Structures
1.
Amino acid sequence: MPSEAELVQKAVQRDAAAFGELYSIYLNKVYRYIYYKVGNATEAEDLTEQVFLQAWEAIDRYRQQGAPFVAWLFRLAHNRVIDYHRTLKSPAPLDASLEDHRPGPEEVVAQRLDAQALQQAVKRLSEEQQQVILLRFVEGMSHAEVGAIIGKGEGAVRSIQYRALLALREILKPSAPS
């Protein structure tokens, strides 16, 4: 199988099969990112397809300038989400549910309460902090990858992440009984 760099190089030359392979590689990651930002599966599907359509239309202008192809895709996705929220004129939800499986009923309730508390806490972070937390901990990206997506250096991403985690700890800290 060709490397990502080879696929990108072929795609830039309008090789539809190579772009199709890139689509297969990144579809779920881009969809998941958009879903967490819009909170609606149907809208996330539509926006994801728009991102890949936009990527195909602009692929011949793509130039790797220190950032990987996936960073370019996520930047397109981020911009598409911003445009979507501008048309709605509403704040971006993080996620409708943060759990992947449902064990026993007691655990389900506890997990939902924890997930809801975390979701509400993350919503109180700045947009930039939310994006770093999402890309780092939901998408599992490195500091360098996140930096390439948000246009910041690795050190700045670490700093944003640190401040976001401190803020989350403070927000989630149990309040003392009065």
2.
Amino acid sequence: MTINEKFDEIVLATTNRGKLHELRELLVGCSVRVRCLVEFGEIEDVKEVGSTFAENARQKAMHYSKILNCVVLADDSGLQVDALDGAPGIYSARFAGVEGANRDEANNQKLLRLLAEVPAGKRTARFCCCLCLARAGEVLVEVEGFVEGVIAEEGRGENGFGYDPIFYLPEKGKTIAQLPYEEKNAISHRGRALKKLVSAM
């Protein structure tokens, strides 16, 4: 049974424009109506206190699906750099402590500074995405997806958001931000997680 057959509507538990755009693109093949939190006005935020991506995704999905009494798809994702013992990890979005329009650039520059003396062969990293689908406070499906790569020495590309400009894919010879959206969605951590979620339905 597919998402189309089970649900008429899914609410994406994010206000991040980049994630929202990407998830909506990934769900284009489904006939469900895709909504987001901003359409519901003022909603009590959930505090992400989990120690893993999976725990945070579950907290968000359960919290918002209970408040809205509907089906909610929550994502928690980020970057894990081997040379930094898995950092920034669950703190990826707030790594540099900067909010607003300059957040992504600040995060990228902090990461590049920390890796300035790290040789190319030791700059391995991965994007991780955990998705949780919940209905009225009850978890339905949980999945995760990964994509392996290397942290580049400088940012390249305009497509994408977050750490995409400095996440280099050796097999593509490009950063994720240099890929067309369709190609990115086909291999991204979020795209891989969503494929698993659809299969699990």
3.
Amino acid sequence: MEAYTPTNAQKYLWLADTIQRGGRMTFDEINERWLSNQTLSGGNEILKRTFHKWIKQVKKMLGVEIECERRGGYHYFIKDEGELENGGMARWLLESASVQSVLLESLPLRSRILLETVPSGESHLTTVLGAMRHNHPLTIAFQSFWHEHPYTFVIHPYALKMFKQRWYLLGYSPDYDMVRIYGLDRILEVVPHADEQFKLPSDFDAATFFRDYYGVCLSDCKAQLVRLRVSADQAPYLRTLPLHTSQKEVETTDDYSIFTYWLSPEFDFVQALLAMGEDVEVLSPANLRQTMARHAQALAELYSKV
């Protein structure tokens, strides 16, 4: 097996993650952690000038500032952990880098570690991100699940979102004069218009746009209060991995819990509820309860056939 060569970005992520997890750390403590990671360090210590260069790059790349407290022995710490605690891209990158580092150290166990297969789509990420950085329109050849032949169109790339192991591109379609979303794994070809630029709306914010959605299915259905009765067996899974950022547990008993959400009860959310089967009951709103009842009836009829 060829020797693994870590990228600079992986080193910067490692440094931010190490200090964030370790709290206030001296340079020697950080170096000790670095040396213990043979995959990244290769047994070589971090030089002081290299270390300070990494600190600058962490701030530039992640927006995370590492400061030094000189009192009591020069301890390094994260100045403001808000960027790492809000579930944003910096946090995701750090967690991904941490997992990757552990897996690389565990390559001898690869036959005993089973991972999920992720659909293709990453091959277009570099092109799409480049267009997003410079506000270049994209011409996309897209193969829908629902059409026999691919079709080509222009889109202004606004944002990317990952959902259930798939990347999705949100953008404005001049042809439809509306914002639409497309799975990257269904894109056959993507070509940037390097000589053109679109203007991103000044009030656009990706997190705000998706705030009222569980997944990526855009819907005209307005956000509303959803109340679920969840079995005692299922409730711990929702507590540890909430369905949505608005989730609140408002009642807890020995037999069930009541969870509330403020969101648009669109297709993806309905699918998530169906996946929990009889362990979840929609209490309100009435229209969502009726939707679930129709699905339950269809399933009952399907399985009643001999």
